[in-house]
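Late entry, evening session. Most of the bench is empty. Finally got around to the prediction I had been postponing all week. Sequence below, unchanged from the version circulated by S.P.
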Amino acid sequence: MNIVFKYVEMRNFYSFGNVRQRVELDASPLTLILGQNNDASSAESATGFRNGVGKSALIQAINYGLYGKSVGNKVKVVNLVNKTNKKNCEVIIGFEKDGIPYRIERYRNPTGLSLFINDNEQKNDEAQGETKDTQGNIDEIIGMSQEMFNQLVTLSTSVEPFLAMSSSKQRELIEQLLGITQLSDKANNLKELFRYTKQEIQN
C-alpha cells in the first residue's frame, strides 16, 4: 500500500476564513511549511511571528478530512469551524493510493461528506452516500484507524504517547500494525456468541 497526499484545501476551518486556501503536500523531496504572523508587532519576539498562523491547523485539517475528528479527539468538531463566520466549513483532501486518485470533501454547518475515486463520486446504493457508510469506505481505503494514523503520521503533542496508553490500547495498535486484528475480532465474536447463547439458555 502506497498513499501519497497531494493537497489539502480549507475554508472557514480554524483560523482560515471564507476564502478557500490550498496547500500542496507532494513537493519533492519535502514540503516545509513556515508561518509568518503579519499582525505581530515588531516589539514581539521572533517566535511571535511564527505562532497562530495556521501551521497546526493543517495537521488538524488532514485528520478531520480523513476521519471527521480532531487530532487525538482533543478538540470538539464544532470548535473546528471558524469562530467568526461560524458556517460553511470545508476541508478537501486529495491523495493517491497505488496510483489511483482519491478526493474527500467534508463539510460542517451544514454537514456533508463525499468520496471521489477518479473524480467519480461514490454513493451507497441504499443509503445514497450516508455519512457512516462513506466513512467506512474511507477507513478501508486508508487502511488504518485514526489512532494508528495519529501515532504514525500526525505525531502531535495532542496525541497520547504509545507508552502512556493502557495495555489494551497498545495491544489494539500492535495488532493493527502487524495486521492481526482478526484475533481480537474473533475473540469479540466469541464473547458475543457466548452472551447470546447464555441468554437463550436462560430464556
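Two things to note before I forget:
The longest helix spans residues 181-202.
The longest strand covers residues 3-11.
Will write this up properly tomorrow.
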